[in-house]
Amino acid sequence: MLKFLPKPFRRLRLTVADKKFYDDIKDILGFPPDKLGIYKLAIIHRSASLFLNKGQRVDNERLEYLGDAILDAIVADFLFAEFPNSNEGFLTKMRAKIVSRGNLNQLAVNLGIPRLVKVGNGVLVQQKYIYGNALEAIVGAMFIDKGFKFTSEVVVNNILRQHIDLIALQVTEHDYKSRVLEIAQKRRVTAKFDTHDYVSQTDTHAVPSFESVLLWNNIEVSRGIGQSKKEAEQQAAMAGIEFVEMELEKIGHDDISNG
């Protein structure tokens, strides 16, 4: 019977807590949600997981995976339209800056998402990008609730245009190599860059350049090419930063498992 009620009246049947959450989501994202339950799932961190009768874990990790892919597509489309004369390398760097773990975490803070996130006791949220991950999960929830076109419009107009300074971002240089080495130290693993001369297989007249391979515990993670060793290593670090940031998050997962 409830589903046949007009949407403005459905809210009247919510619990007090759900009304508060409904209003918070509406305030943060700029629209009233239809499938409130999927947004409630999007804010449950692994450390605060619920378990169903069959032992199935219920948290936001699947939504985070979905939201990550949706967000990548939206940002790529947004940058493609904003910079019609820019090459692939520039667009790739800009997208990497926008969807980096650190930037997404700051975006989540700016939007007010921290007040919604559910975490377990003892989890240090500031160290593990939990808020940024929740933002990705909320994007995934939005996609399920409203579809891609609606989600894209909300992300572009209510998040990217409101909270991202594209001009400042263009001149911002992220030291990905230092970040990789910092995380390796925290994880007590070996990270190194194998950098050597790069010879193009297709362009024999190409400008001399270098190729760098990021090795994480002697396993290849990513590669980068640049006109200097420094640039090649930064490119390799940028290409592998998502993997490395995930390695950092394992600290929190390991702590939870061992607890």
Task: Furnish the topology, listing elements before pairings.
Elements (H helix, E strand, L loop, with lengths): L6 H4 L5 H14 L6 H7 L7 E2 L5 E2 L2 H22 L5 H12 L1 H11 L18 H17 L1 H16 L2 H5 L5 H12 L3 E8 L10 E8 L2 E8 L2 H30 L1
Antiparallel strand pairs: 1-2, 3-4, 4-5
What do these coordinates show?
The model is unreliable at 1-12 and 252-259 (pLDDT under 50). By secondary structure, this protein is mainly α. Helix 3 (36-42) runs antiparallel to helix 7 (130-146), helix 4 (61-82) runs antiparallel to helix 5 (88-99) and helix 10 (176-187) runs parallel beside helix 11. A hairpin with a 2-residue loop joins strand 4 (209-216) and strand 5 (219-226). The strands form 2 sheets. The protein has a 3-stranded antiparallel beta sheet. The chain has a two-stranded antiparallel ribbon with strand order 1-2. The protein folds into 2 domains: 2-170, Ribonuclease III domain (Ribonuclease iii, N-terminal Endonuclease Domain, Chain A, Orthogonal Bundle), CATH 1.10.1520.10; 176-258, Double Stranded RNA Binding Domain. The protein contains 11 helices and 5 strands, in the order H-H-H-E-E-H-H-H-H-H-H-H-E-E-E-H.
| Structural class category | mainly alpha
Q: What is the string of helix and strand elements?
A: HHHEEHHHHHHHEEEH
CATH architecture of the largest domain: Orthogonal Bundle
Could you name the CATH topology of the largest domain?
A: Ribonuclease iii, N-terminal Endonuclease Domain, Chain A
How many strand elements?
5
